[in-house]
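Lecture notes, unit on binding sites. The following record was shown on slide 14. It pairs a sequence with 6-O-phosphono-beta-D-glucopyranose.
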Amino acid sequence: METDSGQENIGTLVVLGATGDLTSRLLLPGLGRLLTEQPDRRITLIGADLPALDDDRWTRTVREAFDTVEATGAAVEHALAHTGYLVTDASSPEDLRRLLGAADGIPALYFALPPAVTARAVHALHQVPLPEGTMLALEKPFGVDRESAAQLNRRITALVPEDQIFRVDHFLGKSTVLNVLGLRFTNRLFEPLWNRDHIESVEIVYDEELGLENRAGYYDRAGALVDMIQSHLLQVMALVTMDAPVSIEAADLRAVKAEALRAVRPWAGDPVRAGRRARYTAGTVDGRRLPSYADEDGVDPARGTETLAEVTLEAATWRWAGVPFVLRSGKALDRARREVAITFRDVPRVPAGLDGRIEPTVLRLCLGPDGMVLELNVNGPGDPFVADRARLETRFGAGRLNPYGEVLHGILGRDPTLSIRAEGAEHAWRVVDGIRAAWRTGRVPLEEYPAGSAGPPTWRSTHPRD
Ligand code: BG6
C-alpha cells in the first residue's frame, strides 16, 4: 500500500513504552480504529519495554485494546497475527538495533516514554543505523523546557529529516480542532471578521471533571500548565490565530502554525500578571469523593504542582494585537467545559428603542462533544422590538477516526501534517517557561479550590487583565 504521495507506507510500528498506560488506553485503540477503517493496511506491530512479557501476554493486551473500539477486519487480523514483544532497554543501542532488525519494511518508532527516557533513547539511536525512511514519533511532552526541546530537536533532526519526525499532539487529531480550518477558510462569514477589529476576546478552555486518576508519577512533575497548555491549548490557539495557509499540506500548514506560535507572548508582556494557578482540595465531583490533591498517592505537596492553570496571552501581530487569549485547563472541576469561545465586539450602536437582552455575538467551538454554537441577538419572538438571545447549534458527527487514530494515520502514512514542527514545539515552551519562571519567584500564589467547584471563588469576579 502506498501513501497518497506515492511513497511506500510504514511496514512496522514499534512502540517503545509498550507496557505503559498510554499504549493500552489510547495508542492501541487508536490503531484498532485506523485498521478497521483501512482493511487493506498491513502492518507488523512490535511492543518494546523493560518488563518481561511474552508474546502471548502482549497479543492479549493488543486484542483487549482493539476490542474496546470493536476493531475488526482484515487489517486488524493481520496486525494481531504479526505482533510480538521484545524486552528492550530504550537507552541501549544494542537493544534498539535488535528491535529494528525485527522490523519488516520501513519502521516507525513511537516513543511512548517519559521525556528523560526519550532523550536517552534518541541519544542511543545515534549509534544505530536507521533504515531509509524511518519515521520517529515522539509523545508529549516534547522535552521539559525550551532548552531541552531545542536539544532534542537538534538530536532527532541529525537522525532523520524533519518530514520523518512526528511530534505528537492528539488534539490536532480532534475533529473540532481540525474543523477550525474548514470553518475559517471556506466560509465568507467568518474570516473577514477574524481579527482585532471585530473580535473582543478568545477563551480556549479545557476544564475536566477527572482528577489525578493515578497519574501522580507523571502529573506531579508536569502540572496543568505543561500537561494541557504547553502542548494542546497552544496548538489550538495557533490554529485560531494563524493566517490562511496556501494549502493544508504539511509544509504549508505547519509553516503558518509555527509562525503563529512565534508571535505568542504573555499579556502585556508581564508573565507575573498573565497567569494564575490553583490546586484542588478534597471535595466531590459528580458524586465521586476526591481527596485533596496534596494527599493523593505519589504526590509531593512541596512541589506545589497546580491542577488548574490559566494564562492570558497575546498574539503580537497586526491581526491580533490587543486581543486577549485566555487559555485555561484544570482537573476536578464542577463541569467539563471544553471549548474555544470567540466573543465578538459590540456593534457600534444599537438603534434607539430596540431593547432587551443585547450581548456580544459568541461563537463556541465545542471540543467534546464536538460541535459548534453561534449565540446571536434576534428579535421577533414575543414583542418584536425586544431583542433576545438565540443559539444556532450543531453537533458534528463522530470523526472517521478517534484522535489517536488520526495521529497514527499520519505516522503510518508518513504524512506529518498533524504533527508539530520543530520550532513550534520550542515556541510553546518559550511561552510556558516564562510563566513558570514567574511562578517560581513566588509572586503568583498557588490558590485552592474544592474538588467539584468552579475553581477558586476569587477567579469568578476578577481577571488578571482587569
Ligand atoms: C492528555 C493529558 O494529554 O490530554 C490529560 O495528559 C488530559 O491530563 C487529556 O486529561 C485530555 O484529552 P482528552 O482527549 O482525553 O479529553
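Take-home: Residues 208, 210, 227, 403 surround 6-O-phosphono-beta-D-glucopyranose (CB under 6 Å).
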